[in-house]
Specification:
Radius of gyration: 13 Å
Distance between the termini: 37 Å
Order of helices and strands: EEEEEEEEEEE
Shape: globular
């Protein structure tokens, strides 16, 4: 299994970015796929989670209403559309996968596979 995250960059406050996580070696609908982020000096935190292409998407409060997570089974890729970016969104963003449906998707230790991370920097 491999997860390849991409799409990060430098944007100004209020800007947008779309992150991609290309998955190989797994079937998206069989896994919980989540985005996490980690800012310097802080713990890794969950951002958004999807358990199947037809299921609900879960968001943490700081990003709800600004970020949208989606999946494309044909491409075996998940996306994170980030709008209204703020300086506090600056972090390395990771995608992660865990087999099945997790009871608590926000726990990094519950995940089996991780992408390499992509840097998002929001300037004020």
């Amino acid at each position: 299994v491999q997860l390849q995250a991409s799409g990060g960059g430098l944007v100004q406050t209020g800007g947008s970015l779309r992150l991609s996580c290309a998955a190989s070696g797994l079937i998206l609908d069989e896994y919980t796929i989540s985005w996490f982020r980690q800012a310097p000096g802080k713990e890794r935190e969950g951002v958004a989670c999807i358990t199947s292409s037809s299921g609900p998407v879960y968001y943490e409060d700081p990003v709800r209403g600004r970020f949208t997570m989606s999946s494309n089974n044909a491409e075996n890729t998940v996306y994170l559309q980030m709008n209204g970016l703020k300086p506090e969104d600056t972090a390395v963003y990771y995608c992660a996968a865990a087999w099945g449906v997790l009871p608590d998707w926000g726990l990094p230790l519950a995940y089996d596979y991780w992408g390499q991370g992509t840097q998002v920097t929001v300037s004020s």
